[in-house]
Each structure stands twice: as structure tokens, then as C-alpha cells.
Specification:
Blueprint (H helix, E strand, L loop, with lengths): L4 E4 L5 E6 L7 E5 L2 E6 L10 H12 L8 E5 L5 H9 L4 E6 L4 H8 L8 E5 L2 H8 L10 E6 L14 H10 E13 L4 H11 L4 E7 H4 L5 E8 L3 H4 L1 H6 L5 E5 L1
Parallel strand pairs: 5-6, 5-8, 6-7, 8-9
Antiparallel strand pairs: 1-2, 2-3, 3-4, 9-11, 10-11, 10-12
Helix pairs in contact: 1-2, 4-5
């Protein structure tokens, strides 16, 4: 098995790519020993974490199979979902925003993207980047079919990225029928999810949540995926999203 590689980033954070001992060619990205992303460059369709699989399925359901779409990723990590979209929807236009300078270039040195993948990169704070992308002259204004929000500093999403002001900025780049996907790593009390849902609900008329049954029932900690937008089809697609698994699963509209 190949050895792990690591690099100290300008922020003094140590990024490390470790080979998965069970999945040939797969890698786990960690920041200061905390796992962040899992990628399978040989098979970008393979999504390891449950919440990433749910996000992948939500993207699958958002448009006809193989149809190119525009996706904005707030929080890039190892570009797991960006690789998935490039594989399943060739020709899609994608942009990743990552606040950790040097992280994505480090990942791409070890796990390059296919030449056909069109994925741009901005190294900046997500809200700062959104304000630029939402400018009237920006090609991203009201264009994104999907906005993925998966930004963490350690175990927490930065406080300024869980506010109505942040989601107003997200709405500025979202296409009229687009969907916002938010990863929330939560405790059993679902306090973080409730905060995010409250902020989303001030901006979007349609909000739903999905995750492991034990997490939504308040019995375990885990990852919740929030979905939001202005199109009622977001709710219409929830039964299919739940049926796709992983199981056991629960969902509810807000």
C-alpha cells in the first residue's frame, strides 16, 4: 500500500492524504488528524460517507441523468462531490471555494482531476467569495443549479456562515429552480441543524432535512443534510432521495 503524504499549509494546518486500506486507490484527507474527505480517483462515483452519498443522490435527482449542470461548492476539501458531478454529468460547470489556502493544490498533486473536468477554484472565505460571485456582472449570479455548503473549521461551521445573511448571498447565485445542500455535523439534540434551518427558512420557502433515523430521532449524533430552495420540487424529490439510502433513513419538511 502506498504511504501517506502530508504537507503543512500556510495556516500551519497539516494536511494528510492516507491510502484507504480497504478500497484500492482511495484516499482519506485529514486536517490536523481530523478526517475531512474521502475520494476514489479510480471511481469517482464511489461516495464513502453517508451524508455525501445523500448529497450525490440529491444532485442525481435535480436534473435528467447525465445532463450538465452548474454546481458551486462552498468548502472544497478533496473535491469529492465535484469529481462525482464531473463523472456523472460530463460538461458540467463547477466552481469550488476553499478557505484553506494550498489545500486543493496539495490534493490535486496526489489525485489529479480528469482533464475533461471543468472545476474552477477560489481560495477565500465562502461569504467573501459569494459577494463577488453575486455581483451583477458575474457569470455565477442566479446560475447555480446546486450550491453545496460544507464548510468547517475543525468541528464547527464558522458562525458567519450559518446566518440569514449568508444564505441571502447563497440565494443570489442560485438559479430559480436550484437547490441548496447543507451538511450539518450535529449532536443528538440537533441544535446545529435547528440553527441552520432557522437561517435557511428566513430566505427560502422550501426547507427539508434528511439523515439516519437515529439522528433525526435524537438518539445519536451524526450528519444531517439540509435541502432548501424556492421550488416545491425539492420536497417532491424527498421520497426518492430517502429510498436511495443509506438506510435506515428519515426525513421531514420544515
Amino acid at each position: 500500500m502506498p504511504e501517506a503524504v502530508e504537507r503543512m499549509l500556510p495556516s500551519k494546518t497539516v494536511a494528510r492524504l492516507t491510502p484507504d486500506p480497504f478500497v484500492a486507490g482511495a484516499l482519506t484527507l485529514s486536517l490536523d488528524s481530523m478526517p475531512q474527505s474521502h475520494i476514489s480517483p479510480r471511481d469517482p462515483r464511489h461516495l464513502f460517507y453517508d451524508y455525501v452519498r445523500r448529497m450525490g443522490t440529491a444532485i442525481d435527482l435535480a436534473a435528467h441523468a447525465a445532463e450538465p449542470i452548474s454546481v458551486l461548492h462552498l468548502g472544497a476539501g478533496a473535491l469529492t462531490l465535484a469529481r462525482y458531478v464531473a463523472e456523472t454529468r460530463p460538461g458540467s460547470h463547477q466552481l469550488a471555494v476553499e478557505h484553506e489556502s494550498g489545500l486543493v493544490p496539495f490534493v490535486l498533486e496526489e489525485a489529479p482531476l480528469p482533464r475533461s473536468a471543468e472545476i474552477g477554484l477560489i481560495e477565500n472565505d465562502a461569504l467573501v467569495a459569494l459577494r463577488t460571485l453575486a455581483a451583477p456582472e458575474s457569470m455565477w449570479r442566479a446560475r447555480a443549479d446546486i450550491v453545496v455548503c460544507d464548510v468547517y473549521a475543525g468541528l464547527e461551521t464558522p458562525a458567519h456562515l450559518v446566518t440569514p445573511a449568508f444564505f441571502e448571498a447563497v440565494r443570489s447565485v442560485l438559479a430559480p429552480g436550484g437547490t441548496v445542500l447543507v451538511n450539518v455535523a450535529d449532536d443528538a439534540d440537533l441544535a446545529r441543524s435547528e440553527t441552520q434551518i432557522a437561517a435557511l427558512s428566513e430566505v427560502f420557502p422550501v426547507v427539508a432535512m434528511i439523515g439516519p433515523s437515529a439522528v433525526l430521532d435524537g438518539r445519536e449524533a451524526g450528519n444531517i443534510v439540509l435541502l432548501a430552495g424556492s421550488d416545491p420540487a425539492v420536497i417532491d424529490r424527498m421520497p426518492a432521495l430517502a429510498a436511495a439510502g443509506p438506510h435506515p433513513v428519515a426525513w421531514r419538511a420544515q
